[in-house]
Amino acid sequence: MRAVSDGGAGPRGAARRSQLLRVRGRSVAWVPPLLLLAGIVLVDFKTSSDFRILSWIVLVPGIAAAICGVWWTAVFAVLAPATYVVADAALPHEYQAGLPDLVLAGIGGVLATLACVVRVRGEQRMLHMQDVAETIRRTVLRPLPAGWGGLDHAAVYLAADSEARVGGDFYDIQIGLHGTRVIVGDVQGKGLGAVEAAAALLGTFREAAYHERDLTTVAVCLELRMERHIRLRTALGKEEGDRFATAVLLGFPEERRDAMDAVVLGHETPLVVCPGGVRPLPPDHGLPLGYGGLVPADGPPPMLRVPLAPGETLLLTTDGVTEARDGDGAFYPLAEEVAAAVAADPGLAQPRRLVAFVRERTLRHCGGHLDDDTTVFAVRRGTGMRGNPGGGGWGNGEGNGRLRS
User: Fold this and answer.
1) d(C-alpha 204, C-alpha 239), whole Å
2) CA-CA distance, 350 to 312, in Å (whole number)?
3) pTM of the model
4) How far apart are CA 197 and CA 186, in angstroms?
5) What are the CA-CA distances from residue 68 to residues 34, 111, 161, 175, 195 (Å)?
6) One digit per residue, pLDDT tens: the chain, 405 residues?
7) Residue 316, CB half-sphere, CA atoms under 13 Å: how many?
C-alpha cells in the first residue's frame, strides 16, 4: 500500500529515478560496468591460459544496459570490443582468442544498446503514466490548505494497490455561502469505474455544498448525481447497475459555533474524539448513494445536529480501517484503540496526531496488507473562519431537490 499526502508531484525524468546509483545528485551508474570491465581484464592476465575469461567482456554492455542510460550503454558497447582487441593483442600469439570472440563482443554491444533503448522508453512511458495518475489524484483528492474553511484537518489515503495513486475513497472540504461543508466517502468496488464515480460525486459536492442552505439538499444532489452516473454507465455497457457509494456529510454553520450538522449515508459512523473520551454519532443513517429509488420521493435522508465542544475532533474513516483484519481474522477495534490512546495521551485528539495514530495502528493490525483502499480523515473547528465567500456573482442558487426513483 502507499500513503498519499497532499505534497506536490515531482518533476519528470531522471530527477524522479531511483537514487540508489547517485552520489551528491550525480549518477554513478557507469561505475559498476567499468569495474567489471577492468576486473575481467585483470583476472584474465593473472590466470593461466587454461582459464581464459576475456570473452566475458560481452557481459559489460549488458550490465550497462540494465542500469545506465542509452549513451553510457553505447560507450560501453564500443569500449568493450576495443578493450578486447587491446587485451587480446597483448598476449602471446598462441594464447590469443582471435576474431570469433571479438565478433561476439561487438554483437553483444549492439544488442545491449537496443535493449537499453527499449528499457528507457518503457521508463519514460511509466513516468508519463505516473504523471497522469498524479494529475487524476490531485483532481479527485485536491490539496487542502491548512486551516481551510476555518477547520483544522488532516488526512491520509492508503491505496490497497501499491502502484495506485487514487481509488474509490474520496474526501473534500468546501467553503460555501452557508458555512463550511466536509465530505468523506467510499465508492463500492475498485478500478477506474470507482474513480469516475468518486470524481462525479466530488464535482457535485463542490457545487452543491457552496450554494445550498440545507445539508440534506446537498445529500439529495449527490443521490441524483449518483443515479445519473449509474444510468449513463449502464447505457454505455459498463455494467455498473449495482454501483453505490457511502458518504458522510458534515456542516459547520457559522451561526452555531457549538454544534455541527451531519448526514450519514450508509457510511461508517464518525467518532467524536476529545481528551475526555470517544463517542460515536447517533446511529440515524440514510441509505447509501445510488439506493434512493428504494425510498419515497419525499423522504430525504435524516440530518443530525450534534453538539460539538471546542477541541472535539471528528474522526472519519472508510471501511479499509474497520475491516482491516489481523492474522486471526479479527477486525481492527478502532473505537477501543482510539479511546485507550486518548485516555493515555489527551493531545492525541489533535487531527494530525490522530490520523497518524490510526494509520500506524491499522497497518500494524493487518501486518501492512490492506485489502481495500483506506482513508483516515480528522477535522475540528479552528479559531475562526478563513476565506468564507460572501456571495455575489450569480446569487446563492438555493435549491429544493428531492430524491427521485
Assistant:
1) 23
2) 9
3) 0.71
4) 10
5) 11, 14, 29, 50, 36
6) 444 444 333 334 444 444 556 777 688 888 889 898 888 888 877 776 666 677 788 889 999 999 888 999 999 999 988 888 887 777 655 455 567 777 888 888 999 999 999 999 998 998 888 788 777 777 778 888 888 889 999 999 887 665 556 678 899 999 999 999 999 999 887 777 888 889 899 999 999 999 999 999 999 999 999 999 888 888 888 766 678 999 999 999 888 888 899 999 989 889 999 888 899 988 767 889 988 765 555 567 888 888 888 889 999 999 888 888 888 888 989 999 999 999 999 989 999 999 999 999 998 888 888 777 889 999 998 865 444 444 444 444 333 333 333
7) 28
